[in-house]
């Protein structure tokens, strides 16, 4: 019982620290400058490793439900259409898979708590039982739900990981190709990151509040709150 209490306390502490970090980052960090500096670093210092690092950068952004379109545009700007498309396509897929695996394991109860906010997803879940690959592919081609939330919602459906990965990779290709192409037409990195500083406080605060709601549900689920 003592072991369980210490484990529970550690879980609560970690979740609250993560929430605090997200809130502080949303309101204090110069996101546009950080993204621009990251892309400059990829361009000037990494050489042939640049596309790989760009692809890996999708993982934290996707897990935190931060739009990663700036990376997609950056791939086109930095590497051109062929290499940029491959790097961004792989990056978007591994980011989506990372969020999926997190939702299917450690964050499953959190995702289930959010399902009530998306009642239209119930019919999708039922359809996935019969045609998982096709439904995921269609959802990627015609995004009826927010991309980052879709990664988590799909994690609690019966779709297999391999079907999810392949359908997501194929379904995200058209929008990835379009954004990479747009990136190749931009003249400066400022054009790639432009607009991030214009995000309203209301939009930024909605994510931490949603996270807080899910954390409270998690604590209640374990009888700790």
Automatic annotation (TrEMBL):
Record key words, sorted: Cell membrane, Membrane, Transmembrane, Transmembrane helix
Membrane topology: Multi-pass membrane protein
Major localization listed first in the record, in broad terms: membrane
InterPro entries for the chain: TMEM64 (IPR015414), VTT_dom (IPR032816)
All copies of domain VTT, residue ranges: 66-184
Annotated Pfam families: VTT_dom
Assigned GO CC terms: plasma membrane
Keyword Cytoplasm carried by entry: no
Transmembrane segments: 12-31, 52-71, 77-102, 135-154, 166-184
Subcellular location: Cell membrane
Protein name: VTT domain-containing protein
């Amino acid at each position: 019982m003592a072991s369980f209490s210490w484990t529970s306390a550690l879980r609560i502490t970690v979740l609250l620290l993560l929430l605090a970090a997200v809130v502080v980052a949303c309101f204090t960090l110069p996101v546009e400058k950080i993204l621009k500096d990251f892309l400059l670093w990829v361009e000037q210092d990494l050489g042939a490793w640049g596309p790989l690092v760009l692809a890996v950068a999708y993982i934290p952004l996707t897990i935190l439900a931060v739009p990663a379109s700036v990376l997609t545009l950056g791939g086109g700007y930095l590497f051109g259409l062929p290499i940029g498309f491959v790097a961004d396509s792989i990056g978007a897929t591994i980011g989506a898979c990372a969020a999926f695996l997190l939702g299917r394991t450690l964050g499953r109860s959190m995702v289930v708590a959010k399902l009530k906010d998306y009642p239209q997803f119930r019919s999708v879940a039922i359809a996935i039982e019969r045609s998982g690959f096709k439904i995921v592919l269609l959802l990627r081609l015609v995004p009826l739900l927010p991309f980052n939330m879709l990664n988590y919602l799909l994690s609690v459906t019966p779709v297999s990981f391999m079907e999810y990965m392949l359908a997501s990779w194929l379904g995200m290709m058209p929008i990835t190709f379009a954004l990479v192409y747009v990136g190749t037409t931009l003249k400066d990195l400022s054009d790639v990151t432009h607009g991030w500083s214009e995000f309203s406080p209301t939009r930024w605060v909605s994510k931490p509040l949603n996270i807080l709601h899910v954390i409270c549900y998690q604590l209640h689920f374990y009888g700790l709150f």
